[in-house]
Write a structure and sequence with these properties.
The chain has a domain at 3-172. It is built from one helix and 34 strands. It has one helix at 3-24, and strands spanning 32-34, 38-40, 44-48, 52-53, 59-61, 66-69, 74-76, 82-85, 92-102, 106-110, 114-124, 131-133, 139-144, 153-155, 161-168, 175-177, 185-187, 190-192, 199-201, 207-209, 212-214, 221-223, 229-231, 234-236, 243-245, 251-253, 256-258, 265-267, 273-280, 287-291, 294-301, 308-312, 316-318, 321-322. With 323 residues, the protein is mainly beta. Helix content is 7%, strand content 45%. The strands form two sheets. It has a 13-stranded parallel beta sheet with strand order 2-5-8-10-12-14-16-19-22-25-28-30-32, with no helix packed on it. A ten-stranded parallel beta barrel has the order 15-17-20-23-26-29-27-24-21-18.
């Protein structure tokens, strides 16, 4: 899907999906009851009337403009298929809210659909991925993905808004934004205890804001291709590096990286900045920075690889407390 199409979709599809959720909650808007697994083949608002069990995929969304309110119910599978799927269809404007999904391959598998809103959904203990969203410009809010055998969340293209996410103890990555998936924001979230990297964003211009990333068995935060930001976040006790940003012009500000198994903050190339941050008790360097760049207001203490390592040119340094 093209970047241009993505933003057209964001302007129309995500607004449409949000509208669908609001309309479905309005008593004046008729909605269709769903009491068994099956296909939602027409645009409209649907709601579950009870818990559902399934062998293979349970709910297939087969049209644009579908809103599904799970009404607090649980969909449970046999370890195969998807709890909710788009069936490989290329749809825009879709909303899923208010329920739990358990023991499918992918809890939510929207491989091809754009402009998805998922809100107040717990998709945990699946045999594959908790939530997979495959096309541009969706919103995940108050989503839980714990104990899945793959990644917690995979966002495969650009421009996702992920807020209030809990992704713990998955056997893969906690939250992954894959190659070509720039411009995604993860905020107000907890990503902990995953067997891979905590937060893995593989293209430019991504944001981690006001979040905690801790006790993951890979790096805490990996971001690639430059122009990425870690802001007001805590990254601690990960097996690998705490914050590992590759490419030019990355920023770490008002953040803490402590007790990690390698460098606390690793900015591998040039033009990056660290401001008003702490990096303590890491097994590698407190900060390892490619220069030129700027390091201001950095506090380090008790790092096994020393306070600060710089490579390349000269970095501007001001008001640092390096121990």
């Amino acid at each position: 899907m093209s970047f241009e199409r993505g933003f057209r979709g964001y302007a129309t599809g995500v607004f449409g999906a949000l509208t669908l959720l609001l309309m479905a909650s309005s008593p004046s808007h008729a909605a269709t009851a769903v009491s068994a697994c099956g296909t939602l083949s027409a645009a409209g608002d649907y709601f579950l009337t009870k818990n559902l069990t399934s062998t293979g995929t349970c709910i297939t969304v087969a049209h644009e403009g579908v809103s599904l309110d799970m009404k607090g119910h649980t969909i449970t599978g046999n370890g195969t298929g998807d709890g909710i799927s788009d069936g490989g269809g290329d749809f825009e404007s879709m909303a899923i809210a208010n329920g739990k999904i358990r023991n499918f391959n992918d809890g939510i598998g929207l491989h091809s659909s754009c402009c998805v809103v998922i809100r107040n959904v717990d998709s945990s203990n699946n045999t594959g991925i908790g939530v997979l969203v495959g096309a541009c410009c969706g919103t995940l809010d108050s989503v839980t993905t714990n104990g899945n055998s793959g990644d917690g969340i995979d966002a495969l293209e650009c421009c996702y808004t992920l807020n209030n996410i809990e992704s713990r103890n998955n056997l893969g990555v906690g939250v992954a934004s894959k190659t070509g998936a720039c411009c995604t924001t993860l905020s107000n979230s907890m990503v902990a205890g995953n067997h891979g990297v905590g937060v893995d964003m593989e293209d430019c211009c991504n944001f981690l804001v006001s979040s905690k990333v801790q006790q993951n068995k890979g790096d805490g935060v990996d971001m690639d291709s430059g122009k990425n930001f870690v802001v007001n976040s805590t990254v601690a006790l990960n097996i690998g590096a705490g914050i590992h940003l590759i490419g030019d012009d990355n920023h770490v500000t008002d953040s803490s990286s402590s007790g990690n198994g390698s460098d606390g903050i690793f900015l591998s190339t040039t033009g990056s900045q660290i401001t008003s941050s702490q990096s303590n008790g890491n097994q590698g360097a407190g900060a390892n920075v490619g220069c030129p760049g700027a390091i201001t207001g950095l506090s380090t203490k008790s790092n096994g690889g020393g306070a600060l390592t710089t490579t390349g040119g000269t970095c501007t340094q001001l008001n640092n407390k390096l121990k």
